[in-house]
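ARCHIVE CARD
CATEGORY: sequence design from structure
SOURCE FIELD: tokenized fold
FIELD CONTENT:
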């Protein structure tokens, strides 16, 4: 297992102390509005996720998984 350096741990501690949210993936890349627009138009089905995957240049199944994870983090599901 990789050891976290003291400098990095200090940064992590400050982020936690200030309640800083670090985002990755769909949210960080700004894809959430695109996903929600397509889901509103087409519903949540395989065709919609294929279209989403093409539009955001992600694997459809990976995008779906990460979107559900995003919703769970907001306690929306």
């Amino acid at each position: 297992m990789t050891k976290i350096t003291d400098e990095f741990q200090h940064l992590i501690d400050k982020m936690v102390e200030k309640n800083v949210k670090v985002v990755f993936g769909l949210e960080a890349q700004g894809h959430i509005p695109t996903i929600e627009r397509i889901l509103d138009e087409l519903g949540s089905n395989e065709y919609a996720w294929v279209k989403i995957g093409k539009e955001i240049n992600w694997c459809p199944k990976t995008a779906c998984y990460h979107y559900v994870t995003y919703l769970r983090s907001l306690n929306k599901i």
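CARD ANNOTATION: The chain has a mean pLDDT of 92. Residues 25-77 form one domain.
SHELF: design records, drawer C
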